Amino acid sequence: MECKKETNLKNCNCTYPCSRKGMCCDCLAYHRRNNELPACYFSAEDEKTYDRSVEFYMRRK
Ligand code: SF4
User: Fold this and answer.
1) CA 47, CA 38: separation in Å to the nearest integer?
2) Of 4, 44, 46, 61, which sits with the fewest C-beta atoms within 10 Å of its C-beta?
3) Is the C-beta atom of 18 inside 6 A of ligand 1?
4) Is the CB–ligand 1 distance for residue 23 below 6 Å?
5) pLDDT one-digit tens code per residue, 2-58
6) What is the pTM of this model?
């Protein structure tokens, strides 16, 4: 399967400087390991807090 990094980057809302940007498989695995969600689950305002925790997500719902 071909990597879709370039396409993914066009849809990525993450503003944190990170080497996983555009690599959704690595991004999701990383945050899942830490009981977190990727930036794309959060609004632009909430994403900027860099709090990716499930708890924060649930509070903001
Ligand atoms: S959501 Fe997390 S892992 Fe994904 S690009 Fe942003 S900081 Fe990196």
Assistant:
1) 9
2) 61
3) yes
4) no
5) 999 999 999 999 999 999 999 999 999 999 999 999 999 999 999 999 999 999 999
6) 0.92
